[in-house]
Amino acid sequence: MLNEIKHIFFDLDHTLWDFEKNSALAFEKIFHELNLDIDSQEFITTYNPINVAYWKLYERNEIDQESLRTNRLKDAFEAINYEVTLEEINTISNLFIDYLTTNNHLIDGTIETLEYLKDNYKLHIITNGFSFAQEAKLQKSNLAAYFVTVTNSELSGHKKPHQNIFQYALSLANASKNQSIMVGDSIEADVLGAMNFGMKAVYFNPANEHVSHEQIIQIQKLTQLKNIL
C-alpha cells in the first residue's frame, strides 16, 4: 500500500540528473581544451560502463575515492588505445570534476514529476556522489528548491546499499520507514538497499532491463510516478 507514503527519497545521478549527457559534454570540452585527438562520443560510450563498474566497487568499499577517479579514466583510455600519462590522467580527472556541473541537463520528466509531487509529499535526496559535486549539481540545475533534505555518503559515513545511510536519511528527514519510498536507477544500491532496510522502493528502469525480482515496482519514465503516488 502506497497511500501512507509521505516522504519520497530520490537518487540523483542517472535518476534526475543526466550524468551521461553532462559528462559527455564535459569530456568534449576537456579534449578540445587539451588538444587531444579523441572522439568524445566514442570515448563516453567506452567510459560509461567502466565508470558504472568502478562505482559499484566504490559502493562496496573495495576502492577509495581517488582510485575511482583515476582508474576509470585509465581503463577507458586503454580501451580506446589512446596513450596518456598518469599526469595527464590527473589533469583530466580534475578538469572533469570542474566541468561536470557546467552543464546540467536533467532526465526527461524530472521537473514535471517533481512539480506534481512537491505539494503532497516531502522530497529528499540520497546519493553516493561526492558532496561538493552533488551540491553543485542540485544548485546549478535548480533542483535544490524541491528537496527538504539531502543525504550523501560522506555525511552519513556509509554508501548505499548499506542500511545506515537509509537510517541516517530517515532521521534527518524525521520520517519513518512505512511513510517512505526510495526511487532510483540502481537495482542494487537504491532498490534492494532500501527494501533490505525495510523501505518501499521504485526502480527507475528506462532501458527496461530484465529484473528477476517480480515484486519490485518499476517505471521506465519518471512521469509514471504520477500513476503510482
Q: What does this molecule look like?
A:
It is built from nine helices and six strands. The protein is of the alpha/beta class and 229 residues long. The protein has two domains: 7-17 and 104-227, HAD superfamily/HAD-like (Rossmann fold, 3-Layer(aba) Sandwich), CATH 3.40.50; 19-100, Orthogonal Bundle (DNA polymerase, domain 1), CATH 1.10.150. The chain is globular and about 55 Å long. This is Noncanonical pyrimidine nucleotidase, YjjG family. InterPro entries: HAD-like_sf, HAD-SF_hydro_IA, HAD-SF_hydro_IA_YjjG/PynA, HAD_sf, PGP-like_dom2, Pyrimidine_5'-ntase_YjjG.
Helices and strands, with pairings:
Layout: E1 7-10, H1 19-33, H2 40-59, H3 65-79, H4 86-100, H5 110-117, E2 122-127, H6 131-140, E3 149-152, H7 153-156, H8 163-173, E4 180-184, H9 187-197, E5 200-204, E6 217-219
Parallel strand pairs: 1-2, 1-4, 2-3, 4-5, 5-6
Helix pairs in contact: 1-2, 1-4, 2-3, 3-4
Organism: Flavobacterium bernardetii
Pfam family, one: Hydrolase
Protein name: Noncanonical pyrimidine nucleotidase, YjjG family
SSE pattern: EHHHHHEHEHHEHEE
Instruction: Provide the number of structural domains.
Output: 2
Fraction of residues in β-strands: 5-15%
Structural class: alpha/beta
Tally of DSSP β-strands? 6
**Counting H and I runs of at least 4 residues, what is the number of helices?**
9
Describe the global form.
Answer: globular
Roughly how many Å apart are the termini?
A: 10 Å
Which CATH C-level class of the largest domain is it? Alpha Beta
CATH superfamily of the largest domain: HAD superfamily/HAD-like
**CATH topology group of the largest domain:** Rossmann fold
Helix content: 40-55%
Residue-averaged pLDDT, rounded?
94
Strand order of the largest sheet: 3-2-1-4-5-6
The major sheet is characterized as: 6 strands, parallel
Cα-based radius of gyration, to the nearest Å: 18 Å
* CATH architecture title of the largest domain: 3-Layer(aba) Sandwich
* Uncertain regions spanning at least 5 consecutive residues: none
